[in-house]
């Protein structure tokens, strides 16, 4: 199988790449080559098959045509401008998150073959007011440009799949936590920061009230969603190709309690409150409780608890040791 | 007030134009000029203000810029490739229904003013399976390219409105019946045909089973939705700018019964069954029962009955006399 990953240099892209390099297969078929694409060159990976890591502009039609001309069997389309940046730079968000996605879909259609396309969407496709629990039939009425761009991408993927131009699935990821590395421009970056930084003895800033609730999944579970999305039988999914992934709901206070349980109260003391109205307003508009029945039925598996998410970070990023 | 109507040569565009020429105002403000745009030149209208009727290609950015440069106070964006044609010609549907709509929104944004934009959407944004009655919170998962294009238009309008680039509202029209004139390429055209043709003593073809249910509104009520959409206070609407319009639900059998009641059984005998699998499949995918609570609360008013819809046609199109 030939694999293409856009946004491969991002955190989710790296986790996915690592997972594929470990398993070596998708749906029982052996991976034979891999193209990693991003705006910055993805880091080298060690794999028993040829890997092309390439930096380029996703908004350049020639780049997209070039990637798709190789007719990859599975295309993971992860590349996106994150929510906070898409809200601040309207044109950049639409160019990358909507126009380039549509160009990608058109390039696939032009090749007249039928790859599996896995598109990462977001719970940002939903907008308040919400019911207490969001079902798989709740409307998409986003309150951010990012959410609108992702929602349009889902609709286009649904249509291109129905028409047989490719076999696509959109997976609405929870906020991925704990993100390794440095904070990015996502408005939800602080959720990771307030756990990751104290785990290595550093201070972290909490910009929102402690009773703010959110919906999370670990990088490990998230990479699992992606590979499962590449493998799952989509005939069983039917024409509705956008699936809300299972996750864990918790307040900021509950995150901090879990941090205390797993790593000790001295770590909790490293969190400093510094309210930010812009971030609070944007993140408050995200939904917090779901009943992702379709995804669970199709075998997508969430983390068990926030404690487990913290332990996964310690195992996968800190070599099993607190810093 | 300066008014722009795209798709002005279409049936709904003409009904809207006529209504505005009769009332002379929108929201209590006097109309001062009108631009009517379509792919064919809209028919001349008699109005006490300057009217520019213009034929052009909506997909030409220069045409759009030209229309919007005049900074119309109200833009009725009705122009679209109809459902059946958009399903058969994928590229044409996307070019007109999605790309040109986005170009229109961008042109308005570039003018840095804030007109009212009324976008005609459709119940085709919904896709089966449905609940028994579709609420205002039911997801948009279209089973036609037309539905996807309209749904994306709704999402974009919501975002541009939230950002303050214009003050927009999408109204999801029921199938308009009875359409005057000749059949068009809409897959729903036969609903009108089986009533309109017998009313003037002509045969009509019924391509679907009689128990097929659908959701209708008269041309008169539809023009009323449009003018109300231009007048209604959108602060009360909030960020969710796509509203399902109220209509009447009825089966084909019920349409035919109403025809018999209003015009006599000899008219019913003019309907000839000629099953068409393509039309039946496409129209069966449309939803049939709604609870359009938000629109009703905002003062949008539906027809009373199918009998009334037939009588409106006889009044407005046949001079009050059966042909």
UniProtKB/TrEMBL annotation, chains A, B:
Pfam families: Epimerase. GO terms for molecular function: oxidoreductase activity. Residues 3-205 form the NAD-dependent epimerase/dehydratase domain. InterPro entries: DenD, Epimerase_deHydtase, NAD(P)-bd_dom_sf. Keywords: Carbohydrate metabolism, NADP. NCBIfam families: ErythonDh (NF043036). This is SDR family oxidoreductase. It comes from Hoeflea prorocentri.
């Amino acid at each position: 199988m030939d694999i293409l990953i856009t946004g491969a240099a991002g955190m989710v892209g790296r986790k996915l790449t690592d997972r594929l390099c470990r398993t070596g297969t998708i749906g029982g078929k052996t991976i034979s080559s891999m193209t990693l694409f991003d705006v910055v060159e993805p880091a080298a990976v060690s794999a028993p098959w040829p890997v092309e890591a390439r930096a380029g502009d996703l908004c350049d039609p020639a780049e997209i045509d070039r990637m798709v001309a190789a007719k990859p069997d599975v295309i993971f389309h992860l590349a996106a401008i994150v929510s906070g940046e898409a809200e601040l730079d309207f044109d950049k968000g639409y160019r990358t998150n909507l126009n380039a996605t549509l160009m990608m879909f058109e390039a696939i259609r032009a090749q007249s073959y039928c790859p599996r396309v896995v598109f990462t969407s977001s719970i940002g496709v939903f907008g308040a007011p919400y019911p207490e629990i969001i079902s798989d039939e709740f409307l998409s009425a986003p309150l951010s440009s990012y959410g609108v761009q992702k929602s349009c991408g889902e609709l286009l993927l649904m249509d291109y799949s129905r028409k047989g131009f490719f076999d696509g699935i959109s997976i609405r990821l929870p906020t991925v936590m704990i993100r390794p590395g440095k904070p990015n421009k996502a408005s939800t970056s602080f959720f990771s920061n307030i756990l990751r930084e104290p785990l290595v003895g550093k201070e972290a800033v909490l910009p929102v009230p402690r009773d703010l609730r959110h919906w999370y999944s670990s990088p490990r579970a998230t990479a699992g969603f992606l590979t499962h999305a590449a493998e799952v039988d989509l005939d069983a999914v039917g024409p509705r190709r956008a699936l809300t992934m299972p996750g864990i709901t918790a307040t900021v206070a509950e995150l901090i309690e879990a941090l205390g349980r797993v790593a000790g109260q001295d770590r909790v003391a490293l969190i400093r409150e510094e309210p930010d109205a812009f971030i609070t307003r944007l993140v408050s508009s995200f939904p917090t409780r779901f009943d992702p029945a379709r995804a669970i039925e199709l075998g997508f598996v969430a983390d068990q608890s926030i404690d487990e998410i913290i332990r996964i970070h310690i195992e996968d990023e800190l070599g099993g040791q607190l810093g």
